Amino acid sequence: MSLVDLTILVFGVFLFEIKLVNYYVFIGYVIIAWIIISLKNEFYNVERQARVIQLFSLLIRQILLFIIVLYAYMGFFKQPEVGRLALASYVVYVTVVVFLFKYLAFFLLKKFRVLLKGNGRSVIVIGDNAKTRQLIKIFQTKLDYGLNFKAKFSVRDKDFSLMKCLEYVVENNIDEIYFSVAELSNDQITNLVNFAENNLRTLKFIPDNKDIFARNLKYEYYDYIPILSLRKIALHDPINAFIKRFFDIIFSSLVILLVLSWLTPLMAILIKLESKGPTLFLQKRHGLDNREFYCFKYRSMAVNRGNDALHVTKNDMRVTKIGKFIRKTSLDEMPQFYNVFFGQMSVVGPRPHMVSLSEVYMKKANRYMLRHSVKPGITGLAQVSGFRGEIEADTDIINRVKYDIFYLENWSLLLDLGIIIQTVTNLFKGEEKAY
């Protein structure tokens, strides 16, 4: 949707005789201004349960801020011959067309959920009281929300078991769990939170006066029922995801064209001179939503069938001479820019682990699976904070997970740029665990 809006903005510039000094500067200004305002205004973060009045308020704020920034351009860049009437017509055009498109997309998506059952999420409710019954009624009547109610579990039932609820979630591939805080004990809530995070399920609270965990909570309304979401992951916002993906494509394309185009043939010669086998080493890793993908690396070890299952340790005999150099300088990771370009990885994110190791680490570090809520990265906050390489003790993976979770909750493009700069700095300084 953001691309359509930007197209509307740019196309409108040529519809009216605004008489600008430099049209290209104006177009660049308009695009940047719209993106910044959208990020600040969360213009594209419209929840499925949003009401029309909320959408209208969002549109008004967006347009008013855009008008202010637009007229500021005329004063700052001194446009002596600008057509005031044409500029006003451009503002009206942008307002009307963006409004129409926003509402059209909003209503079409609602109809899509009702008529074709698309864009749906399966949900269950734990608890039996006035609020949970009212919420279930909303699920069953507000079909345009796309929230498919599957089951209710009453805590007061003699045979109630939280474990049975969790088994039902897994067996029926439930997406979201809603529960009444008033009806569960603190231990049960803790178990439910841990289950949701380790199994990549969305957990939402129906609040009361109990003390809720000190986590990032998002407050929202389903009709007139207040709902709390456990965590708002920054990269689940469509605009943030678009910005990060755009940056990944540009950055990886430049590396592929300017570096890998000559580095790969050179590495192929050096690697094959020392040992027989392929230049690239493909290893299965867990990525976004715990899906497996093949991670690309320059081969740094002699060909061995067991290389895919065993993590490299210090003074590992499998590592070749050229392998020691490229691992020390992290050159072996460079082909992962192809993974970034193909959309399997990001430049910055939690480092992906071997499939066999993920199963081990999941038992050692609580909330480990939450790392898979975003794409894995070539480098990450944990790596530049001293937690890269071999896991020698349980505290290593526990601390790595803490940094990864902080990253996905507090992502920004500036944070990514800072991590990239720190990664390059560490390469020149040298790192103890780079082996």
TrEMBL record:
GO terms for molecular function: phosphotransferase activity, for other substituted phosphate groups. It is a multi-pass membrane protein. Pfam families: Bac_transf. Residues 244-428 form the Bacterial sugar transferase domain. Its main location: membrane. Coiled coil: none annotated. GO terms for cellular component: membrane. The chain crosses the membrane at residues 20-40, 52-73, 85-109, 249-271. Keywords: Membrane, Transferase, Transmembrane, Transmembrane helix. It is found in: Membrane. The keyword DNA-binding does not apply. The keyword Signal does not apply. It comes from the Bacteria. Belongs to the bacterial sugar transferase family. This is Putative colanic acid biosysnthesis UDP-glucose lipid carrier transferase.
